[in-house]
Amino acid sequence: MKTLVLTVALALPLGAAPAWLKDVNIPEKAPLKQIRPTKLSYSMTWDGKVKAGSFKILFGEKDPRYPKHFLVHAYGGSTGWAHALYPYTFNYISFLNPKTLRPIMFVGTEKERKDVDVLNFRFTSKGVTGTEKDTKNGAARTKNKSFAYPHSLDLFSGLLQIRSMPLKNGDLVVMPFHPVATPYLAKIKVLGRENHMGRKCIKLNIGLEKIDDDMSLKVYKKLKTATVWLSDDAWRVPIEINAKVFVGHVRIFLTAHENL
Predict the structure, then answer these.
(1) What is the pLDDT of residue 7?
(2) Strand partners, 123
(3) What string of DSSP letters covers 147-196?
(4) pLDDT confidence bin for 47, thresholds 50/70/90
């Protein structure tokens, strides 16, 4: 970890190394815990009453076009009454190194009514570079983005990193990552063990802060609090996410866990 802190510090202007770097405690570039090919299906409700959306995550999906990658594919969107108010869909694909499960490339498309956001990011030992192409009312605008943090993780490798940690009761995991189009600093507190939705689970509290272009932290106003129940078994997959966000109370829960 000292090597990582030094590398980031040297990449920044003199005296600008952020204070949060010293708190990061995930391995610098160690392989992540392998996961067997599996399909996870989730449902989402808003304020505990309204069904708001659904999505699926496929770990290890086979695609003959990409035989040299471990693929993670996620897709879904709003449903029912929520879709009428907020028609939203997404499609993400993460290309991981099959030996280490660390990210090589992340691509995605997000659609909200006629607005389309196309994401394309590459991950290297030096950090993240890529583009976000936003099309609104027929007009397209492309933003070039970068995150100068070595060995960064994307959305799915970030989840794989969490499940690769010891996660002993009371542990605090501090992890910078670049999940979709913006980098964040995640702080994951292990609250304990309990049975939840019929499975033994590890209960986690999740806090997120945005990482700005100058590597300083900013309050992430869209997320107030989040609790995650991770299965306490060899799978270590999310069973439920319970979050208070800017639009209310959101509950995401696992509805199916299948082999691919």
Answers:
(1) 47
(2) 128
(3) E--TT---HHHHHHHHHHS---TT-EEEEEE--SSS-EEEEEEEEEEEEE
(4) confident
Report the number of secondary-structure helices (H) and strands (E) in the chain.
Answer: 3, 15
The residues, ordered by sequence, that sit 6+ positions from 183 with a Cβ below 8 Å of its Cβ are 128, 147, 149, 152, 176, 177, 210, 211
**CA angle at 37 for the pair 32 and 39, rounded to the nearest 5°:** 115
Q: What is the mean pLDDT of residues 186-196?
A: 98
Report the residue count for the chain: 260
Question: Whole-number mean pLDDT of the chain?
Answer: 92
The 3-state DSSP class for residue 22 equals helix
| pLDDT greater than 80 at residue 27 | yes
Q: Return d(Cα 95, Cα 179) in angstroms, integer.
A: 13
Reported pTM: 0.91
Q: Determine which helix (DSSP H) or strand (DSSP E) holds 3, and give its type and residue range.
A: helix 2-11
Q: Give the phi and the psi of residue 254 in degrees, each rounded to 5.
A: -70, 130
- Nearest CA among 175, 176, 162, 180 for reference residue 235: 162
What is the mean pLDDT of the segment spanning 140-169?
96
Distances (CA, A) of 15 to 12, 40, 126, 146: 8, 45, 20, 20
CA–CA dist 253, 258 (Å, integer)? 15
Long-range own/partner contacts, residues 20-24 (CB < 8 A, 24 or more apart): 20/174, 20/176, 20/185, 20/217, 23/174, 24/174, 24/175, 24/176
